[in-house]
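Sample pair:
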Amino acid sequence: MTARRNAARGPLRAPQRRDTGSAVVEASQKLQKILAQSGLGSRRAMETWIAEGKVTVNGEVATIGTRVSPRDVIKVGAKTVRWQAAERTPRVLLYHKPEGEIVSRDDPEGRATVFDKLPSLRDGKWLAIGRLDFNTSGLLIFTDSGELANRLMHPRFEIEREYAVRIIGQLSDEQQRKLLKGIKLDDGLARCEFLDDEGGEGTNHWYRLALREGRNRVVRRLFETLGLTVSRLMRVRFGVVTLPSRLKRGQLLELPAGEVKQLLTWLSETAPSAPPAAPRGSPEKRSRPRRSSPPR
């Protein structure tokens, strides 16, 4: 890891427990948080499920805000949800996505999906941190923690994404200023946090840039607005997580528990606008494309 810069269908009463006289109070958590920690989806998605009456606690339909403990039986439909201990370290996978794969579990066209290569989980499911379109390669992060996924993807946290971009032609000084100042797209203003000229040969030219958002095809649309065509696009960093140079296209790497904890520490203690220096033991250095050939 390196960095650069409803209404419910019925109320649910809290479970009544006999007072044993013990001074120990059993810890409880909000239901939507426990569901998200179980890898079923983001906390917002879990709140929607609860509001739609899809979740029960001890046989009763739950409501948003219901608090649960390890002794409660939580079900989503007919599926029992295992309580995930608060100290459990989430699993995090890094995947070097090649062009030609979609970030979806189902595709009517039958195209290859990134989920085909992921290891199976006993509970929950793998959640993709953001998306990369069919023709975009590079770093894709997966986790079994809905809380972690939400913290990395939610727009209000403005986690920085860095890309290597190859275009046909070259940016003028004025076009570079526009990218840094901001360009109005059909869904709002978008701008680059930084923009570096990486050089190139012939008609191909490489740039490095970063944005604090992940709108659909935002990088390609920025260049299209300037009348330029992106011929290769590769994500090389997401927050403090960088695509390891040793991770080749189509390969997976699971982060060690120590590095996952470092990521969690950064998310909880560091302002997203100012990522810390790379923690020891993280992937060595950022993947850098060769100037005359596609990134590998």
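The helical segments are 31-37, 43-51, 146-153, 173-181, 218-225, 257-269.
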